[in-house]
Amino acid sequence: MIDQITVFLENSEGRLAALCRTLAWANINMHSLVIADTTDYGVVRIICDDPARAIDVLKSADYRVISTKVAAIGVPNEPGGLAKLLATLDELGQNIEYGYCFTINGGMACDILKISGAKEASEAAKAVEEAGFKLLTLDDIA
Amino acid sequence: MSKERDVLTLPHDELEALQLEGIKKTLVKCYENVPFYKESFDAAGFDPYALETLEDLKNAPFTTKQDLRDNYPYKMFAVPMSEVREIHMSSGTTGIATVGGYTEHDLEIWGDCFARAIRYANGGKDDVCHVCYGYGLFTGGLGAHYGGVSAGCTTIPMSAGNTERQIRVLREMGSTILCCTPSYAMHIADTAISMGLDPKKDFSLKVGIHGAEAFSDNFRADLEKKFGYKVLDIYGLTETMGPGVAVECWEQQGLHLAEDHFYPEIIDPETGEVLPDGEWGELVLTTVDREATPVVRYRTRDITRIIPGECACGRTHKRIDRLHGRTDDMLIIRGVNVFPSQIEDVMKTVPELSSWYQVELTTVDHLDRVTLKVELEQGFDFDEIREIERLQKEVESRMKSALSVGLKVKIVEPKSIPRSEGKVKRVIDNREGVN
After folding, report:
1. What angle do CA B65, B67, B68 make, to 5 degrees?
2. What is the CA radius of gyration of chain B?
3. pTM confidence score
4. Does A63 share its domain with A74?
């Protein structure tokens, strides 16, 4: 499990740019950024190299930001890679809140999954590992 | 000081005798020196020389804010200009300003009335009184200043603005009394906290004397928690003097009206009829001994009631309840009366939200649309959108049941609702046909 940072942003011009600028000034490198958007606001989910410091920096710049535990799972970058992983979770009857993927160093994809419930999440992580997938750390991603 | 104690604990019948004697003089002075009163009394068939009892005052005609505006700038003055020492004006946001004039005697009374709040808090010459109401035509700054000086405090005339400097002075000068609007006090607390300070430990405040805006009990509790002090509510308006017309004592069970200087009536704002103690209505004030700009039955447009019974503190002056808001602040939304303070009360039951809010009114398809902008508190887990939606729905349903009007909750980023240094702007009315 790794720490994702989640930022609340108003759906208005320049907010995302300002957020990225704040992180850039603090010399924080993002590996992935996805936005769940609604009419009025967006929830921005970021995987970066130093989540603890990113949270400090954003808090002092008056952003609403929280840290969220998510599972980062390494999957071969080939057809059916994600389908196999999800099938494993499906067998466990595990509910996934959201997920997104990005590619890391060539042959690997990193799948980020938010699994509801802390206990369920760690059980699911164990099952995923037993099924032969690799649970990634921030060091693996960087 | 001892004279002060006497006036505040005078048996009520003696206070009434003092009021009657003063108002008789006020009526005659108004009638003989202010053309407006001559016209208005004559038109109503009211004889200013024949007042027998305080109750008879109900036969005198009302004075409204419009009357004061119509007589701008000096026509309401009852003394020659050579007697006038100071002028204040209410914010003329909706038109021509209203003017208050003060003789030396009026200024002395003003200082004394504001100082009662400090005395109720057992404050005096050992205290440092930090005034960050705006200084100028607004009565807040100089009213609090005269109050601090009159109570014997070391008074710091900070005026509003430059919050970081306010915080530095609060720390370094060891201020014990804070005078400002409640919203500005909250802004100071929040700014201090975001600077890494703890206002409870880093400041030496004992009491905050906050007024010029209606604020809820919850807002007060929040301030008291952040600063670790006690908040006393203070009431006043430029048209009758300024802050100090009524102030809360340490009991926090209503505001003692300075009955030696003001005579209160509560009326039904629709019919103008005087209501018995205990009933909510519009506060009407007559000055007992104001010299420069006395007023007779001035309609304050403030909604309150006279609290029946005696106060545990032993002072005999009648108490008015904490304001529900001004009749001007009252919003009519789809025909329903809503006070911003009601919205505030609901908001404070939702710990996920901060104290800041703004109501935006627009017209959509000829109907009023209300949007309530709120800010998330630190710590709320908003990672899943449905959590944010759940919070929005929860607040919307609580508002609906408290106000009987549906509104849309919009969550905005921290500090995107403007912080004010004076009176806070809670309502933005962009409806067609309004304003």
Report:
1. 65
2. 22
3. 0.70
4. no
Residues of B in contact with A15 (CB under 8 A): 413
Looking at residue A130, its pLDDT comes to 87
Give the count of beta carbons closer than 10 Å to the beta carbon of residue B271: 9
Same domain? A6 vs A44? yes
Assess whether A48 and A76 both reside in one domain.
Answer: no
User: Between chains, do B385 and A36 touch, taking CB under 8 Å as contact?
Assistant: yes
Whether the per-residue pLDDT at B106 is higher than 80: the answer is: yes
**pLDDT digit string, tens, across residues B33-58:** 999 999 999 999 999 999 999 999 99
Q: Is A43 in CB contact (< 8 Å) with chain B? A: yes
CB pairs under 8 A between A and B: 49
Chain B residue with CA closest to A99: the answer is B384
- pLDDT tens profile A66-82: 999 999 999 988 888 88
Min CA distance, B410 vs chain A (Å)? 7
A15–B contact, CB cutoff 8 A: yes
**Positive or negative, the Cα torsion across B306, B129, B326, B368?**
negative
Task: Give residue B328's pLDDT band: very low, low, confident or very high (50, 70, 90).
Answer: low
Determine contact, residues B229/B178, Cβ cutoff 8 Å: yes
pLDDT per residue over B254-305, tens digit each? Answer: 999 999 999 999 999 889 999 999 999 999 999 999 999 999 999 998 989 9
Dihedral sign, Cα of residue B38, residue B40, residue B45, residue B48: negative
Q: What is the mean pLDDT of residues B75-94?
A: 87
- Which of A25, A40, A68 is at the close of a domain? A68
**Is the same domain home to A62 and A88?**
no
Query: Domain boundary at A24, A39, A68, which?
Result: A68
Residues A14 and A64 in one domain: yes
Instruction: Name the residue among A40, A59, A66 with its Cβ closest to that of B382.
Output: A66
Nearest-5° angle of CA A34, CA A38, CA A39? 135
Same domain, A57 and A10: yes
Number of domains in chain A: 2
Asked if A10 and B416 come within 8 Å (Cβ–Cβ), the reply is yes
- A93 and A64 together in one domain: no
Longest dimension (CA), chain B: 73
Domains and CATH numbers, chain B: 1-328 (3.40.50.12780), 331-429 (3.30.300.30)
- Shortest CA gap B264–chain A (Å): 46
For residue A12, the enclosing domain spans 2-68
